[in-house]
Amino acid sequence: MPKTLADIKKSLDCHLGKRLQLRANGGRKKTVECAGVLRETYRAIFVVELDQEDNTCKRVSYSYTDILTEAVEITFLDEAKAAVAK
C-alpha cells in the first residue's frame, strides 16, 4: 500500500466506480465488514456507497489517514477475482 496520503488518494482515484470489500475498526474490539462501490474522493476523505441489503446506512466516508494507519482495509473485488483466475 502507498506510504503517503497523496499516494493513497491517487491510488483510490484510479478505482472510482469499482466494487470493493471494506474492513474497518468499529471500536471496542469490533470489526465492521461491508461491500460497496467507491463513489467519490475528496481532498481529505473518500466515500463508499454500501450495498443496501447488507447495511442500514447508504454511504460511509473515511479519511486517507484511516488507510495509512490500517484502521481501514480495502480490497477491490475486480483485482481479487483477477488474482484468483491467474
Give an overview in words:
The chain has 86 residues and is of the alpha+beta class. The protein has a single domain, classed as SH3 type barrels, CATH 2.30.30. 27% of the residues lie in helices and 43% in strands. The chain is built from three helices and five strands. The protein has helices at residues 5-13, 64-68, 77-85; strands at residues 19-27, 30-41, 45-50, 59-63, 72-76. It has a five-stranded antiparallel β-sheet with strand order 4-3-2-1-5. Strand 1 and strand 2 (30-41) form a beta hairpin. The relative contact order is 0.22. The model has no long low-confidence stretch (mean pLDDT 86).
Please supply descriptive tags for the structure shown above.
86 residues; alpha+beta; SH3 type barrels; 43% strand
Q: Can you tell me the overall shape?
A: globular
Order of helices and strands: HEEEEHEH
Mean pLDDT: 86
Overall number of domains? 1
How much helix is in the residues? Answer: 25-40%
Alpha-carbon Rg, integer: 13 Å
Task: Output the structural class.
Answer: alpha+beta
Number of helices: 3
Largest sheet: 5 strands, antiparallel
The CATH topology assignment is SH3 type barrels
CATH architecture designation:
Roll
